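Hello, quick one for you while I still have it in my head. No rush at all, and the record is pasted right below.
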Amino acid sequence: MDSILNTAKSWLTDFFDADTKKEIENLIQTNTEELKDRFYKDLEFGTGGMRGVMGVGTNRINKYTLGKNTQGLSNYLKKTYPNEALKVVIAYDCRHNSDTLAKTVADVFAANGIKVFLFSELRTTPALSFAVKYLNCHAGIVLTASHNPPEYNGYKVYWTDGGQIVPPQDGEIISEINNLSFEDIKFKADESLIQLIDKEVDEAFISASVKNGNFNAKGKDDFKIVFTSLHGTSITAIPEVLKRAGYKNVTIIEEQAVPDGNFPTVKSPNPEEPEALNMAIEKAEEIGADMVVGTDPDSDRLGIAVRNLEGKMELLNGNQTMVLMTKFLLDQRKAQGMEGNEFIASTIVSTPMMPALADAYGVECKTALTGFKWIAKMIKDFPNQHFVGGGEESFGFMVGDFVRDKDAVTSTLLACEIGANAKANGSSFYKDLIDCYVDFGFYKEKLVSMTKKGITGAQEIKQMMIDYKNNPVQSIDGSKVIFVDDYNTSTKKNMVTGETTSIDIPKSNVLIYTTEDGTIMAARPSGTEPKIKFYFSINATLDKASDFKKVDAQLDEKINRILKELNLN
């Protein structure tokens, strides 16, 4: 506790503002537990950059922690590009303090002689990724905490290709940051270096989204869409993209269209949570809509609900939408003529149906760690290959490579194209998905998340991962575990022969079990939230579409047995 107290007291110097010092003094006197949580560590970069609760302290998002990041990044940019006029672009979402924190970040860059393009108002994350390349910037920053609760904010760093930073850059930047004290931050901006941007970049981004996501689907006039931005940034782009692509029957949930960091109409602004789309689904049932689309606050994730076989709206998961979107893109590519250098992409905790799909189309499926920065890195690492599209189970998808991160804007348009085209052909989005199960195998996934907050929570998560590693599960639902992939040690162990082989993917704290019947279980601590996540994938053969309900029920029963067996239900 002494070291934590000393760290807290170091924030009582004249460098820090009066409000900050007053709050720390009050915590020292009245709330040692809260003080401990705020100063026991520094916030770190995870799979989605730096993300945390806003407030005073080293373990919080505030002007000093973000200022230090930005000072370190400024130093790194100068070392990396010593003879260039440096440029960065900054965007921010609807969260509390996002606009003021974005201006603070801009000030620090400008104080270091770096030209800053700052969006004049909130914008989507895909628009920021696009703007990095469009404006020929050396880096980009977006202030967002994605779908986290209202008390969170965050800071994501993008590089020259429009993708998030990856090794070794992230480590080198962190070293620069760690070599600084807070007093090294330059806050006094050269305002002449800060330029507000909006309409020109907006127009370029929206035009590119329409170009990449519009396939001139039939039946647009007859396709009804309900859209909700869940109080976030996508309201700045998606309605206009759909309009330009020819969709006229778009109903916007007005109560959720106003950007609001409190997210007053939902428990969580996360389209992965069924509750988040309740208002939109109710409206869809009322007006007889074909599809519901909802996006998270920074508009990189999208949730889609469509009519199931009973005609009721059903929320699909990220694996389902990813498979159908990828198949549609592959069909379009095939119609143009495959060149033989195409690839799709997914992640190690996403559905094995993606490699099965790739095999059927004769293309490569590259598999990466969780996080779209790894998919963006693939595009950069393999410039002679053509990236068709790809995604991850957490409701993210990327259409082509003009944006290098999850892109709910273009993906929303793509989903509507698939749905409109299917309806015009006498099918539906849902029926087309079932046809995929017949053609490529019926894969079904389940995600279980356990929240463990604070210091004790972090220790619990760490111990759980140690236990799963040191005492491997022997079987799952009666099927023997035959492989254990430990991405922390980059090893794949055959549990039958004892043979160990290496995994050619960067290290990460992930364990994956595979059984004889193809059941997969992955355990992974979240990189952006105080959670441990368990991913399950099971599969069966679906001989014909009419058997869907029966086989679906059997797979549900299997998942429930597995969760009960592992005490995760």
